[in-house]
Amino acid sequence: MKFTKHTTRKAAGLLELGIGMAIVLLILFIGSFIRVRADLTSEKRYTLTPATKQLVDSLSDVVFVKVYLSGNLPADLQQLSSSMRDLLDEMRVRNPDLLQYEFTDPSGSLDEKTRNKVYEQLQKEGLQYTSIRTRDKGSQSEVIVWPGAIITYKEKSMPVQLLKSQLRATDAEAVNRSINNLEYELASSIRQLTNPRQARVAFVEGHGELDRLAVQDLTNALSEQYDVSRVRLDGKIDALSEKAEGVSFRMNTFDAVIIAKPDSAFSEKDQVILDQFVMNGGKVLWAVDAMDPHLDSLRTNQFSMATPLDLGLDNLLFAYGVRINKDLLLDKQCAPIQIYTRPYGEQPKLETLPFPFEPLVLASTDHPIVANIDPVHLKFVSSIDTIGLDSAHSTILLTTSRYTRVLRNPVRISLSVVDMDLGLEKNNTPYRPVAVLTQGKFRSAFADRMAMPDSVLKAIGFREWSRPTAQIVISDGDAIANPVDRERRTYYPLGYEKGARAKIFGNREFFINALNYLLDDKSLISIRSRTISLHQLDPHRIEAERARIQAANVVLPILIGLLGGAIFYLLRKRRYAHSR
Q: How far apart are CA 208 and CA 117, in angstroms?
């Protein structure tokens, strides 16, 4: 048989095609056993944090996530839905057998009665709907969407609200905040469902501390992760701990306690109870005032004299490496207040003016407690000094701004300060600490002070040195209080600004992060602190250039494909023409 050049070239082409197909099939076969993923985004939005990876890897039973953010959605919520799907896909890569999910449209039924039943059921399960007005080619329509999910583990379920917005807004900023929080919300919910034991946290009361309503928002937020209650000390040694027979020291019945703005002194017995709670490894979050501004006088007389507040806690805090000074801080970087100024016609004029006694403080470090949180709103705050301890160290978390002045006791507080030129640019004491973390081993504030025989001290389980522990001190009790409407018995979110009618301050995030850190939930903080940038399209340009954008996205890829095919054909034709 005689082979021509054409036949040989054809056989070589078929052989080349066969080898290429074999290589592709081999790569696909090998790839079915090897998972290789590359995240090329600058903020690593498709990469799970180590804490989430560990959580997913540790699952012992199926976690099922049913997401209701599906269907005909506005562009912003489509992006939120896509981000949620991407997150779940990344989690499934880690554990495909025990993490499953489903997207469903609760408004998908054409029957109105069926839709209403689905809506009622979702509300009973704890999800909130969002009513959105959309515009399409000049016409407006209203869409009801459910930006949430239900997570089920064994026989327990939990709702998760994906859209984080106080005003149910769907603007770019609200969606970006929600996307940033997706991994945290999902991971913390799964962790809560799968964790058999919740840490116990208690608000201490009995010394004029904030009541339930004043800390209700923080209580609700902490209750999603911990067992939160309230406890009175009343001089009872067993209030925070207990001692079993045959054991040398006491065992705490709570993991952490919160001291929220007391206004009366702690008895010596209560001080000992708190001290021994710390000695046994207990964590304490102190939100306490050093000065009493006498706000009743300020409201009636336009001025007052702030005086030291004796809480009986100075010796305790000093032993733990912290001293809250008897002073008040003025800060140019401050929140506004509404006050009546000079008459305007026959009615007083209500103006919104910056009030230097209410600083807005920012993080002084990149510590995970304060990373990526909004400014924290403080009222009549004092400066904090740290005391050097050999067995413990302190970290300053929050400071005032560069333009701060320290007012020593006694301090005259006047509303007229809003009209004064305080000269804080020149006469200042910058960056005063107002929140401090102290951690390590502490010596008891009552060491060498207990007038009891050693046998009695041993019987009650007295410790002179603590186990490794940590405490956080913020020198403002109001920082932890959410706004309250006493007449209606309702409250606003912690960090809510009445003038803006929205939550704009980072108080809630600060205290949640603080408790997470104290209770060794650093993984939750690492998830919360990640930031994903949202690259938002211009909605006005989209509306004006809709036809051009659609044509570019549909027609242009086809033209590019045809042009590439034509170039390939011409090059191939030219190649074979030269080879003849």
A: 47
Find out whether 397 and 436 touch, Cβ atoms under 8 Å.
Answer: yes
Structural domain range at position 134: 50-194
Tell me: do 446 and 399 sit in the same domain: yes
Residues 452 and 414: their CA atoms lie apart, in Å, by: 49
pTM of the model: 0.72
* 3-state SS, residue 172: helix
Residues in contact with 434: Cβ distance below 8 Å, sequence separation at least 6, in sequence order: 329, 359, 361, 378, 381, 382, 383, 384, 398, 399, 400, 474, 475, 476
Are 171 and 84 members of one domain? yes
Pairing of strands 502-503, 496-497: antiparallel
Whether 322 and 363 map to the same domain: the answer is: yes
Q: CA angle, corner 430, sides to 425 and 433, nearest 5?
A: 150
Candidates 482, 478, 452; CA nearest to 464 is: 452
Span 333-386, pLDDT tens digits? 999 888 776 655 556 677 778 899 999 998 877 788 887 788 999 999 999 999
- Give yes or no: residues 447 and 497 share one domain: yes
d(CA 231, CA 157): 29
Residue 562 is encoded by which pair of tokens? Answer: 């045809």
Structurally, the chain folds into a number of domains equal to: 4
The predicted-structure confidence for 212-232, as pLDDT tens digits, reads as follows: 999 999 999 999 889 999 999
Pairwise CA distance, residues 426 & 405, whole Å: 10
